[in-house]
Amino acid sequence: MSGPVQDGPARLPVLAFDLGGTRLKAGLVYPEDARVEGFTATPSAPTAREALERVAALGERLLHDRGCRAVALCVPGIVGERSVAALPGKLDGMVGIDLIDWLETRFAVPAVIANDAIAFGTGEAVHGAARGHARVVVITIGTGIGVSVLQDGRPVTPGPLGGGLLGGQIPIDDGTRGPHDSNGKRGTIEALCAGRRIVALAEGFASIPDVYAAAVAGEERATRALDVYRRDLARGIAALAHAHTPSIVVLGGGPMPPANPVLDGLAALVDAWLWPGYAVTVATAARGDEAPLLGLAVRAAA
Fold first, then answer.
1. What is the residue extent of each domain of the chain?
2. Mean pLDDT to the nearest integer, 171-180
3. Nearest CA to 117 among 164, 158, 47?
4. Backbone angles phi, psi at 84, to 5 degrees
5. Phi, psi at 36, each rounded to 5°
6. Which 3 state secondary structure label does DSSP give 26?
7. pLDDT at residue 250 in the model
8. CA dihedral defined by 193, 196, 201, 203, rounded to 10 degrees?
């Protein structure tokens, strides 16, 4: 594939991919005006080989005959400068692949890679709900919990374990209830606050939207489940707030759309756990699925 047009490369987009275990999202990102063109979401694949084949095909489709200034990819797990160091239970075979070499060979432009939570957090800190805040914590809620901590739009510390990445493994309970997290532990933020926990607590509902709809309608089984989940989430937010002292905590991921019933009373519960005189805003993500693509483009343009 041809590289970027040399005339005015700063006007060219960043080709950005958010590769997860379930979905592959991509788009052409113009970081100067926070615009994502051609956003596409397709199923991912169980193995690294198949997933990267889909990345290549989707990239070709998005670019057509135009160029890009850089290519950027985020994935779950512990992500180093060139490869994934650990990725339990997803994208079999991804660990150890030199992704920078693969991307640069495939697309003939400079490449960057990042953890997906860091990319999402960067997008929300620079272009989303946390814009204008200096210290930011972003929590992405899905099958697990992603955490990123940013200062002035950048992860607070470098390296594969930097940026607050392991915040989901902070214990907030005695570990006698609930499922295990991705580290095999109980009682952590991830174990008690992952999206699947909402359905498990409610029992008898097929999906999180079903639980939410029942809670809004006043069904006791759903409201009780959300009360438990909300209290656990408040403890998790408070723990991360005390650890990192942000002015805002942003909640993202599929289970956290704007105006969802978990938010009812959540800020007050968080406030009750905080140090006297310290307050933190709790908000939902503003850029949704675009956030990690925007965050990748910020990193690629730096």
1. 9-118+290-301, 132-286
2. 94
3. 164
4. -90, 130
5. -115, 120
6. strand
7. 98
8. 170
CB neighbour list of residue 166: distance below 8 Å, 6 or more residues apart: 147
The answer to whether the beta carbons of residues 112 and 285 sit under 8 Å apart is no
Which tokens is 124 given?
């929300």
Q: What is the mean pLDDT of residues 59-87?
A: 95
CB atoms within 10 A of CB 244: 19
Read out DSSP for 96-133?
T--HHHHHHHHHSS-EEEEEHHHHHHHHHHHHSTTTT-
Question: Long-range contacts made by residues 2-7, C-beta under 8 angstroms, separation at least 24?
Answer: 2/67, 2/108, 3/67, 3/107, 3/108, 3/109, 4/67, 4/68, 4/69, 4/109, 5/66, 5/67
DSSP for 43-104 reads: E--SBHHHHHHHHHHHHHHHHTT---SEEEEEESSEE-SSSEEE-TTSSBT-BT--HHHHHH
- Give me the residue label for tokens 């620079």: 126
Reply yes or no on domain 132-286 having CATH 3.30.420.40: yes
Conformational region of residue 87, where left means phi above 0, alpha means psi within -120 to 50, and beta covers everything else = beta
Asked if CATH classification 3.30.420.40 holds for the domain at 9-118+290-301, the reply, yes or no, is yes
Q: In which band, very low, low, confident or very high, does the pLDDT at 201 lie, cut at 50, 70 and 90?
A: very high
pLDDT at residue 168, as a whole number:
96
Torsion angle defined by CA atoms of residues 187, 189, 195 and 196, in that order, rounded to the nearest 10 degrees: -10
pLDDT, residue 11, reads 85
Cα–Cα dist 204/202, whole Å: 7
Mean pLDDT of the 40-51 span: 96
Question: Model-level pTM?
Answer: 0.93
Q: Which of 86-90, 174-178, 242-246 has the highest mean pLDDT?
A: 242-246
